[in-house]
DNA sequence: CGGTGAATTCAACGTCTGTAGAATTCAGCA
DNA sequence: TGCTGAATTCTACAGACGTTGAATTCACCG
C-alpha cells in the first residue's frame, strides 16, 4: 500500500497487475477512515500507487467506486448461521459476539466503518445502510423468532448495534472501547435479547 | 434566515445588527445538516445574509466557530433534575423521554445533530462528544445511583443513546423513526435501566 | 508480423474551499 | 466636531477537488 507512482512511465505494464483490486482495497480503507465525502480519489489512487485518472477509468465516478467497494464479501446470513444453533436464551449474547467478531476482522471492519461514517453525512450511503439493516437484521429477527412487530424490533436492535459500533470503534468512548468481548457481551447481550422477546410497545 | 447580501454596500450598518447571533444560528443549522467537514463558511455566511469574511472577522477560524456554536445553552443537569424526582424503577424511561424531548427542541436538536454528524469524521468533534458524554451522562449515572463501575455503565448508556439518535433522527430507520415517544420509551427505557442497575461484567 | 484494444499516465479544465488584507462606512466618545 | 475602532464588503490567493481527453505503452489474437 501507499507506494507512490513508480517510474512516472506511461502505458501498460507487464504481467497481472491486480490494480483493480488494489484500488478497491485502498478505497475501502480511505472510505473507512474519512467517510465518503472526506475520502478523495487522489488519496485512494496514491495509496494504490496509481494515477487518479486510472480510478476513473475503472469505476467511472466516485459514487460507483463506493458502491463497488461496499459489496459485502460475506453473506451475512451465513455468518449468523452459527447463531441459530445456540441456546435461544442466549441469542442476544451470541449476536453481540458475532458483531464484535466482524469488527475485529480487518476487511469487514473497514466496510462497516466506511458505511457508518458515510451514512451519517451522505444520503445515498444512508440509504445503503438502511437497506443493509433491513435485509440483514430484519431477516435475522424474523427468521429466528416469530414474534409480532419484527420490523420495529429489528430497528431497535439496529439502534443498539450501530450505537455500540460508533461508541466503541469510532468515537472510542472509554471504558467501553477497551472492555473485553466477554464484558460487552454480558452487558449488551441482554439488551438485544430484550428487543427480541419482551414487549416493546407502550 | 438566508437573506442574501442586501445592497452589496460596504461599511457598518445602523442599529443593533445581531449579526453575530445570526451567524451562530446559521452555523448550528449547517453543521447539523452536513457535519463540520461538510459545512462551508460560505454557506453559513449566505444563510446569515452576510459576507464570508465577516464570519472570519468574528470567529477567526472554522474550528473556533464550531466550538462557539456548540456551547451548550442549557446546563444538562438542570434538564435532568426532573428525572431525579421520579420513580427510581422508571428512571430509564424518564431518561429516554428527556432525550427524545431534546431532539424535538429545534436548537438543541441542531446541536446534537451537529455534534454527532461531526464526531464521526472529525477528531476534535469526537473529543468534544467524549467530553460531553463524560461530563453529562457519567455525572447522571454517578449522581442518581451509587453502583460500582459508573464509567462503564455510562458508556453503555451513551452507546444506546447515540445509536437511538442516529437510527431515529439521522439515518431515519423505519419504523423506529416514526414510532411514538411512548413506544420508544417503553422499548428503550428498560435498556437504560438495565445498564444502570444490573450486572454488566462477565 | 500487424492490428486492436486494454492499461496507464500526463496535463488540464472549472469549481469550490478556508483564509487574508485592504477599503469603506458608521457608532460612540471626547 | 473630530478620532478611534468596530462592522461590513470586495477582491484575491493558493490549494484541493472530481473529472476529462489525449497520449503512450503493452498484451494478445490473427
3D architecture notes:
The structure is a homodimer of 202-residue chains. Chain A has 202 residues and is mainly α. Chain A is built from eleven helices and no strands. The longest helix of chain A is centred in the middle third of the chain and has 22 residues. The first copy, chain A, is elongated, with a radius of gyration of 20 Å. The interface between A and B is large, with 52 and 52 residues. Chain A binds a DNA duplex (30 and 30 nucleotides) through α3.
List the helices and strands and how they pair.
Two copies of one chain form a homodimer.
Chain A: H1 19-38, H2 41-48, H3 52-59, H4 62-69, H5 76-79, H6 81-84, H7 91-103, H8 106-119, H9 123-144, H10 150-170, H11 181-197
Helix pairs in contact in A: 1-2, 1-4, 1-8, 2-3, 7-11, 8-9, 9-10, 10-11
The structure holds a DNA duplex (30 and 30 nucleotides).
β-strand amount of chain A: under 5%
Oligomer classification: homodimer
Summed over residues and divided by their number, the pLDDT of chain A gives a mean of 89
Q: How big is the Rg of chain A?
A: 20 Å
Q: Sketch the major β-sheet of chain A.
A: none
Helix content of chain A: 55-70%
Broad structural category of chain A: mainly alpha
Low-pLDDT stretches of chain A are: 1-7
**Helical segment tally of chain A?**
11
Largest interface: A-B, 52 and 52 residues
Distance between the termini of chain A: 53 Å
Amino acid at each position: 500500500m501507499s507506494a507512490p507512482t513508480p517510474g512516472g512511465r506511461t502505458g501498460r505494464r507487464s504481467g497481472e497487475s491486480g490494480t483493480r483490486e488494489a484500488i478497491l482495497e485502498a478505497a475501502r480503507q480511505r472510505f473507512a477512515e474519512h467517510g465518503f465525502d472526506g475520502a478523495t480519489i487522489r488519496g485512494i489512487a496514491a495509496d494504490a500507487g496509481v494515477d487518479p485518472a486510472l480510478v476513473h477509468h475503472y469505476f467511472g465516478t466516485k459514487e460507483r467506486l463506493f458502491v463497488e467497494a461496499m459489496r459485502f464479501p460475506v453473506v451475512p446470513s451465513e455468518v449468523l448461521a452459527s447463531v441459530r444453533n445456540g441456546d435461544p436464551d442466549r441469542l442476544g449474547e451470541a449476536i453481540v459476539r458475532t458483531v464484535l467478531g466482524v469488527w475485529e476482522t480487518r476487511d469487514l471492519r473497514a466496510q462497516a466503518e466506511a458505511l457508518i461514517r458515510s451514512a451519517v453525512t451522505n444520503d445515498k450511503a444512508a440509504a445503503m445502510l438502511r437497506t443493509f439493516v433491513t435485509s440483514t437484521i430484519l431477516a435475522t429477527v424474523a427468521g429466528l423468532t416469530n414474534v409480532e412487530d419484527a420490523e420495529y424490533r429489528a430497528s431497535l436492535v439496529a439502534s443498539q448495534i450501530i450505537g455500540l459500533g460508533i461508541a466503541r470503534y469510532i468515537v472510542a468512548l472509554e471504558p467501553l472501547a477497551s472492555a473485553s468481548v466477554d464484558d460487552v457481551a454480558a452487558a449488551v447481550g441482554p439488551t438485544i435479547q430484550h428487543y427480541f422477546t419482551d414487549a416493546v410497545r407502550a
